[in-house]
Amino acid sequence: MAEKLLKMTNICKSFGTNKVLDGIEIEVDKGEVVALLGENGAGKSTLIKILGGIYHADQGEIYIDGELKTINSVSDAGDNGIRIIHQEIVLVPDRSIAANVFLGREYKKNGLIDSKRMQRETQALIDELGIPLRANTLVRELPLGMQQIVEIIKAISAEAKIVVMDEPTSSLSHAETETLFGIIQRLTKKGVGVVYISHRLDELFRITDRILVIRDGISVGNVKTKEARREELVNMMVGRELTSYYTRNAHDVGDIALEVKDFCNEADGISNVNFHVRYGEVVGFAGLVGAKRTETMKTIFGVKKKTSGKLLLDGKEVKINKPSDAIKQGIVYASEDRKQEGLVLMNDIEFNMGLANLDEYIKFLHIDKKAWGEMIKEYKEKFSIKITSSKQIAGDLSGGNQQKVVLSKWLALHPKVIILDEPTRGIDVGSKSEIYEIIDELAANGCAIIIVSSELPEIINMCNRCYVMCEGKVSGELKEADFSQEAIMTMATNRE
Question: Domains of the chain, with CATH numbers?
Answer without folding.
Answer: 6-238 (3.40.50.300), 256-492 (3.40.50.300)
